[in-house]
């Protein structure tokens, strides 16, 4: 080990947030030269008449009287409100072959895109092009496809309801349901799993429920980094003395201690509030086992209570009146041994029983979860076991209780609600036919993995991206990058340059758009857009900053123009809709009854909550009941039984937003200035003859396909991580994820459970 190998690796001693967060914001803002704009921008963020933070989808408190400080929200805003520009001069100076050698950070760090650009093969450069010419060429190329299902329409979850609605309208009038979206890589296990369990694919709680709950279980998410405003809520829960129980393979600082920037006394006295009352380092992929163990505990406690003449701990009335499948669940729990549970979870029976007792004692429980639950081979099974556990004590559909999937992008949930889905139901399609007078396609479309497979195999030839960085976010970069170059047409509606834009099709276009922080002026004046947060609250957002360039168009305007250029006989009044986004909302309301009085209801600060049937104990399942669903497996992957095999989870650093890398620090994990590390348990290092700071290679245990997937020369960092588990950063580690390594039911890539071997690097 050379001394340098451990440069930038240390222990982080502080609590989450606090002064370190303020400094990080100042650095981020300075780095983007956004100082003047930033203060104005930040002050209107998440305010009743300001713009919605483009960071996470955590809801806003109802009575926001002062700016709710969030380090990572501030970074997201300064990244968009940057004074830096990626101009035609920049593209003239750098051929694409050169840009491909740049790190992802450097590409986006050039700043906001300013002009529509088209790739030119002769010069190997993106050259400026007029909007009209670009749209004409795009329309011609789309019309030239032998059939509409050869086009893929990707959406990243930052798009507003208005943009997303127009986008699905355009693609469906064009003739396809191919809507790969970032949700396919994120909460698809929720979207597929929860409707089977409780009849809705969304969370059932509201922010107020956190004021009434008696315990919160946080499973597989890292709010200190990814939903920082949630810490304010958890802090209140903790102050009330309600237990917060965490299951996470890594010891995440934000879940341990939090210094609230909203509370000057904590800041000045350098004190902090403990968050988790109990923290379990579950093995990666061990959650089904834990959840089954907790359910076994409940059943045992129930029997004991009944035998002593007590009332039992299961909610018998709820189970009898509202559910099916209870007997099958009991049989499965009975057949699952504690031995198997301990092995798969890495936790002892007594630990799990302790957690089960906390759950049983709490009158009202909320379980929140994130990617640590969904991105597995059995992600859907994971989600459904959480629903089972809640249902056993009637913890769904009453105050202070429920399920709380933490969505990723700030409007990923809304995009789904307004029609971005490859499996549209009849209500949606009938609604479109009724309102617009064309017959939308009824065939199932492609999800994200299917889209890549279709492009790889030449079955799809055009890709339109409404934001995002599909190729880098997707599994299997080897396959995905190559596939991109198979396309005839690639269209990227984007704010910043990224690698996906550089994987060239025969014709490639970059169409620069307004961001959420910017003033969006259309024929009838400045427009608001709407978004839906993780708790089904829909509210308006209005940007206040001057657009980054006079050549930018809004996403709705770009989509409408593309539709007009592609569909000569369109039935939709695109120009009218774009002139007044209120009219887009009228159309949304006409298609989706739950948006009744849409325009009126967003006038109210904070907006309105969409009806969530399961929150009212109305079960929109085929059985009209909530269903206990058995997941036969308790381990992720049989290969992990091999003692040499570790399970790798890919995780986000504190300085990134998905594929956008803001900087190279991961403050709460003690990493500074680098990302080339792998977090390993000390004992797993020792048993391999390795130590803290050694250079190691990670190789995927061979699956069905020949060839080795390997990441070389990472520095091993001994970390508080469950034995048998390792973690490395996303997106770099996506080279390790095979395209067919995904949740068997929902297709969510198993980014969080990759069977790997760890060995010393050679040479
Ligand atoms: N600042 C910032 N905010 C973001 C994002 C961002 O990149 N940066 N991304 C947004 C998006 S799109 C999303 S989806 C969310 C993501 O938010 P999270 O769901 O918090 O996402 P991850 O960072 O992937 O981390 C998941 C956590 O799961 C844990 N974990 C890994 N494997 C397992 C497991 O098998 N079991 C359990 N119990 N835990 C496990 C990891 O240790 C980690 O703490 O955040 C959103 N908000
Ligand atoms: N290994 C691994 N892979 C993962 C994950 C993981 O945990 N591990 N997580 C997965 C998850 S949860 C998700 S959600 C996906 C994310 O996948 P994506 O949503 O595709 O990726 P992002 O990195 O969020 O997209 C960033 C790009 O969006 C564009 N952009 C930013 N703001 C705007 C805007 O306002 N409008 C438009 N049009 N464009 C904009 C910019 O050009 C920027 O480069 O990645 C997935 N991939
Ligand atoms: Mo996500």
From TrEMBL:
<dbReference type="GO" id="GO:0016020">
    <property type="term" value="C:membrane"/>
</dbReference>
<keyword id="KW-0004">4Fe-4S</keyword>
<protein>
    <submittedName>
        <fullName>Oxidoreductase alpha (Molybdopterin) subunit</fullName>
    </submittedName>
</protein>
<dbReference type="GO" id="GO:0045333">
    <property type="term" value="P:cellular respiration"/>
</dbReference>
<dbReference type="GO" id="GO:0043546">
    <property type="term" value="F:molybdopterin cofactor binding"/>
</dbReference>
<keyword id="KW-0411">Iron-sulfur</keyword>
<dbReference type="InterPro" id="IPR006657">
    <property type="entry name" value="MoPterin_dinucl-bd_dom"/>
</dbReference>
<dbReference type="GO" id="GO:0051539">
    <property type="term" value="F:4 iron, 4 sulfur cluster binding"/>
</dbReference>
<feature type="domain" description="Molybdopterin oxidoreductase">
    <location>
        <begin position="112"/>
        <end position="494"/>
    </location>
</feature>
<keyword id="KW-0479">Metal-binding</keyword>
<dbReference type="Pfam" id="PF00384">
    <property type="entry name" value="Molybdopterin"/>
</dbReference>
<dbReference type="GO" id="GO:0030151">
    <property type="term" value="F:molybdenum ion binding"/>
</dbReference>
<dbReference type="GO" id="GO:0008863">
    <property type="term" value="F:formate dehydrogenase (NAD+) activity"/>
</dbReference>
<feature type="domain" description="Molybdopterin dinucleotide-binding">
    <location>
        <begin position="646"/>
        <end position="754"/>
    </location>
</feature>
<keyword id="KW-0500">Molybdenum</keyword>
<dbReference type="InterPro" id="IPR037951">
    <property type="entry name" value="MopB_CT_YdeP"/>
</dbReference>
<dbReference type="InterPro" id="IPR009010">
    <property type="entry name" value="Asp_de-COase-like_dom_sf"/>
</dbReference>
<dbReference type="InterPro" id="IPR041953">
    <property type="entry name" value="YdeP_MopB"/>
</dbReference>
<keyword id="KW-0560">Oxidoreductase</keyword>
<dbReference type="InterPro" id="IPR010046">
    <property type="entry name" value="Mopterin_OxRdtse_a_bac"/>
</dbReference>
<dbReference type="GO" id="GO:1990204">
    <property type="term" value="C:oxidoreductase complex"/>
</dbReference>
<comment type="similarity">
    <text>Belongs to the prokaryotic molybdopterin-containing oxidoreductase family.</text>
</comment>
<keyword id="KW-0408">Iron</keyword>
<dbReference type="Pfam" id="PF01568">
    <property type="entry name" value="Molydop_binding"/>
</dbReference>
<dbReference type="InterPro" id="IPR006656">
    <property type="entry name" value="Mopterin_OxRdtase"/>
</dbReference>
<dbReference type="InterPro" id="IPR050123">
    <property type="entry name" value="Prok_molybdopt-oxidoreductase"/>
</dbReference>
